[in-house]
Amino acid sequence: MKVGTVVAGPARGLVSARPSRRKPRLGVWFEHQFHVFALAPTVIVMLIIFGLPLAFSFFLSLKGWTPSRSIYGGDFAGAENYRLLSTDPVFVHSLVLTIAYTIVTVTIEMLLGLGAALLLNKDLPFVRFIRTLILLPMMMTPIVAALCWKLLLDPEYGFVNFLLGQKLAWVGDPQLAPIAVTLVNVWQNVPYVAVLLLAGLRSLPTDPAEAASIDGASRLQTFWYVTLPALRPSILVALLLRTIFEFRSFENVYVLTGGGPGGSTNLISMFTYALTFSQFDFTLGAAASWVMLVASLCLCAIPIMIFRLREKV
Predict the structure, then answer these.
(1) What are phi and psi of 76, to 5 degrees?
(2) C-beta of residue 212 within 8 angstroms of C-beta of residue 221
(3) Which of 275, 295, 294, 286 is nearest to 56 (CA)?
(4) Most buried of the four, 7, 43, 72, 248, by CB within 10 Å?
(5) How many C-beta neighbours within 10 Å does residue 202 have?
(6) What tens digit of pLDDT does each residue of 33-71 get?
(7) How far apart are CA 38 and CA 90, in angstroms?
(8) Helix/strand/coil for 75
(9) For 92-109, how does the pLDDT look when each residue is reduced to its tens digit (9 = 90+)?
C-alpha cells in the first residue's frame, strides 16, 4: 500500500485520528477530585467513630430520660438540663476550678518544656542519655504514674515527706491536694512539650541567629527577637494540645484524690463521671460533657487569637 492512500475514506480517517474529548475531560476531573476520593473513606470512618457518639450525646443532653425508660420514649427537655447545670453551685465550682487548673498547669508545662528543649538543643555531654531520661515520665501510663506518686506522697511512709522531714497530707489536705495533682501532671507532661519544642528548634535555620550574633546581639536578644518568633508555630501546637489534654484531666485526679478532699480537686471531668456513672443521671452527664467540650474550645481559641494578633502587629 502506498503512503497517503485513503483506506476507509477521508472523513473516517480524520475522526479516528482525533483524540477522544470525553475521556480526557473525565480524566482531568478525576485528577482534580482525586484528593476527595482518597480522603472520603477516612472522613466516613471518622464521622462514624466520632460523629455518631457526639450526636447521640447531644441528643441525650436534650432529653428528660432515665435508664428505666426507652431512649426514644423520653420527654424532650430542650435546654432544661443546661439550665439545671448553670444553677448547680458544684458544677460552677468544678468549671471554674478546671479553667484555673488548666491555665496554671499549662503555663508551668510550657515554661519548663521550653527550658528543657533549649537545654537539650545544646551539645552537652551525655545529651542523648539525658534526652532518654527525660522522656521516661511520658512513657508511663497516667494510672501507673499516679499510683507511684500516691506512694511517694504517702504522709507516713512517702519518700517526699522523708526528704522534707515533715508529715504532710499531700492528697488529704484541701490546700495541698490541688498542688499535688498539678505537680504530678506537670512531671509527666513536661517531656511531651519539650519534645515538641525541641523538634521545632531543630527545624529552624541557623543563619538568622548567626547573623544576629555577628551584628552584636546578645544571647538573650537573639533568643527573644529571632528564635522565639520563629518557634511560634511549634509553641502554638504544644499550647493547644496541652490545653485540650489538661482540661479533660481525669486519670491522675481519680487515682490521687478521687475529686476530694472537700471538692478541692473536683474537676469538671470528675463531676461528669460522678454524675453519669455514680448517680446514673445520663442526660445531665451528657449536658455537662458538652459544656466541657465547648469550654475547652473557647479556652483554645484564646491563644490562637493572641498569636494572630501578634502576626498582624
Answers:
(1) -85, 115
(2) yes
(3) 286
(4) 248
(5) 10
(6) 777 888 888 889 988 888 888 898 898 888 877 777 776
(7) 47
(8) strand
(9) 999 999 999 999 999 999
